[in-house]
Amino acid sequence: MSGVTDSGIREVVIIGSGPAGYTAALYTARAQLKPLLFGSSIFVGGSLTTTTEVENFPGFPDGIDGPALMENMRAQAAKFGAEMVDDDIVEVDLTGDIKLLTDSSGTVHRARTVIVATGSGYRKLGLDKEDMLSGRGVSWCATCDGFFFRDRDIVVVGGGDTAMEEATFLTRFAKSVTIVHRRSTLRASQVMQNRAFADDKISFAFDSEIAELCAENGMLAGLTLRDTFTGKTRELDATGLFIAVGHDPRTALFTSQLDLDDEAYIRVAAPSTRTSVAGVFAAGDVVDHTYRQAITAAGTGAAAALDAERYIAARTADRAQDSRPSVAV
């Protein structure tokens, strides 16, 4: 089965990369659907490209670097014929049988099925100077920027697994790491908590939130912490801030087209990956705000590919039936 019809209609277009997108591309490519994947101009490979060693992805007993894992997935999909473009889809019309997708250059791509695997993005604190100080002491990626904070006092804000992983990684470079969390207990898994508590370089500021960022010569120079119970503030010397307070699904492109839940994640008809629009499927962190694991994202990517393949086969059979000449009786 060809992936592109004579009329230029793709059988499958995948929006987004990462474990879900690349797995969907692999499965649809092996089904000879010749998928076209838009991996984004910024977030190619998803969040694992900013992760260090991945220890819990099956098949790698010694672990593997996140970027290497994503590159392997991409190469495997390409081996079977998946076409990948590091560009963005900026507009979609999913209402018809043929889906219309416009890329950043204005080119309109037509597809019978679409798999959405756009993932989620880092959540910001909403503080004054936060954007201004991005790359100037404020970061959302320890593995990207940790090296530049050698022998400095660093703050990590958050209480989940990501915050603990960031803090533990940063101890390789930092003089000290303070974890700031709004509550008195962490949300992280016990194993991640144990690692952080056992590290001599890590201390904790519980029941605290960041009230203000202090800048000097355009760089982060310190923080003001506020007690979440008393409202009292105190200053904390730090020239590095790593924000790890969660993610927001990248669904802005689909708000008027697909059914979203209260947190803006795409709703699917579980256990399938079908969305509220026929021919559109969704996988990975854009759907999942419970597990958020590379392996679960890859699993739903495979499911979305299989769902799309079966949808295409059924529609192809229907078109063949409709095109048969009627027999006079």
Automatic annotation (TrEMBL):
UniProtKB keywords: Disulfide bond, FAD, Flavoprotein, NADP, Oxidoreductase, Redox-active center
UniProt keyword Membrane, yes or no: no
Domain FAD/NAD(P)-binding: residue ranges: 11-301
Cofactor binding mode and count: Binds 1 FAD per subunit.
Gene Ontology molecular function terms on file: thioredoxin-disulfide reductase (NADPH) activity
Annotated catalysed reactions: [thioredoxin]-dithiol + NADP(+) = [thioredoxin]-disulfide + NADPH + H(+)
The protein's enzyme class: oxidoreductase
Coiled coil: none
Key word Flavoprotein present: yes
Cofactor(s) of this protein: FAD
UniProt EC number: 1.8.1.9
PANTHER family: THIOREDOXIN REDUCTASE 1-RELATED-RELATED
Complex and partners: Homodimer.
Protein family (similarity comment): Belongs to the class-II pyridine nucleotide-disulfide oxidoreductase family.
Protein name in UniProt: Thioredoxin reductase
Organism: Streptomyces sp. 900116325
Taxon lineage: Bacteria, Bacillati, Actinomycetota, Actinomycetes, Kitasatosporales
GN (gene name): trxB
